[in-house]
Amino acid sequence: MLRSFLIYLSKATWVQQMVTKWSFAWKAASRFVAGENINDAIRVVKELNAKGINATLDQLGEHTSTPEEAQKSTKGILEILEQININNVKANVSIKLTQIGLALDDAICERNLEEILAKAKELGNFIRIDMEDTPYTDKTINLFRMMLFKGYRDVGIVVQSYLYRTEVDTRELLDEGACFRLVKGAYKEPPELAYPKKVDVDANFDLLAKIMIDSAVKNGSREVSENGRIPPVTALGTHDEKRIFYAKKYLQESGLTKQALEIQMLYGIRRDLQDQLAKEGYPVRVYVPFGTHWYPYFVRRLAERPANIWFFVSNFLRK
């Protein structure tokens, strides 16, 4: 019930307008958000790179309401790619399609997405298309497939283990040469679409990790590029040590090297585990969000980890 309420708050404009005026709210959010501009984000990436950890940069924002806003977001993403190149950091870019027009018009989104992928191709970088809530699942997969058909290969997608449909989607997309980030899922979905129990979400996560590793054995899997920008086919986006342990064990049994499995984690969460995995020789990539539209992202982090709520409340009491 608490998680559902927080998901509601993450989408409530009236709450966002109130909370973002509180200075202590940004202080709490900055634990999970690198800053409000690209320079802040690049500084964080350099710190991660110094520890042997790669990054994926995310310009926060979703559900743009006009074509002009979608174009502005697209230009911001192009600038991220340029800054990664200029600063020679080990990072790629994650994007949300609703940020570049998916909720407005499919054609607008397609045009903006192709402009981003063309720039990434020019600079030798990689774009990860995040998966959003279920009203956009089919549209997201369809646009991803369209880009693969057009010849863009350094692009990946995210699949969510809490959806019933994901096993079928994963098997089909693997046959088409997709590159994945597997996550549990952070949105509130109805029980007819998503597993309501955590134990089932976890079991499906393990199954999907196994399917991806089996495919990598069968079809081959690239390793992380030397510049840290191009990931392997299989990436796990989780802080759950049991899920990571299962995947590591299965990877070892499969005969693949550690470089065939990337562990991706969120900025500000389980830094100890990030450092440990990097020292073990696994590719680790930290999701580094930045920007002024930090409120929805921050509240979803509170929904995922109840311990974060106390961090926020304690800052409120000290303000």
Furnish the topology, listing elements before pairings:
Blueprint: H1 2-11, H2 13-19, H3 23-29, H4 38-50, E1 54-59, H5 67-87, E2 91-95, H6 106-123, E3 127-129, H7 137-149, E4 155-160, H8 166-175, E5 180-183, H9 198-219, E6 234-237, H10 241-254, E7 261-266, H11 271-280, E8 284-290, H12 295-304, H13 307-318
Parallel strand pairs: 1-2, 1-8, 2-3, 3-4, 4-5, 5-6, 6-7, 7-8
In short:
This protein has 319 residues and is an alpha/beta fold.
Uncertain spans: 311-319
Q: What's the total helix number?
A: 13
**Average pLDDT rating:** 89
The percentage of residues in β strands lies in 5-15%
CATH topology: TIM Barrel
Share of residues in helices: 40-55%
**Mass-distribution shape:** globular
Number of strands: 8
Structural class: alpha/beta
Report the C-alpha radius of gyration, rounded. 19 Å
- How many domains make up the 3D coordinates? 1
Strand order in space, largest sheet: 1-2-3-4-5-6-7-8
Order of helices and strands: HHHHEHEHEHEHEHEHEHEHH
Largest sheet: 8 strands, parallel, barrel
CATH architecture: Alpha-Beta Barrel
User: N-to-C terminal Cα separation, in Å?
Assistant: 28 Å
Give a description of the structure:
- This protein has 13 helices and 8 strands.
- The chain has 319 residues and is of the alpha/beta class.
- The protein has one domain (34-293): TIM Barrel (Alpha-Beta Barrel).
- α1 packs antiparallel against α12 (295-304), α3 packs antiparallel against α13 and α5 packs parallel to α6.
- Residues 311-319 have low confidence and may be disordered.
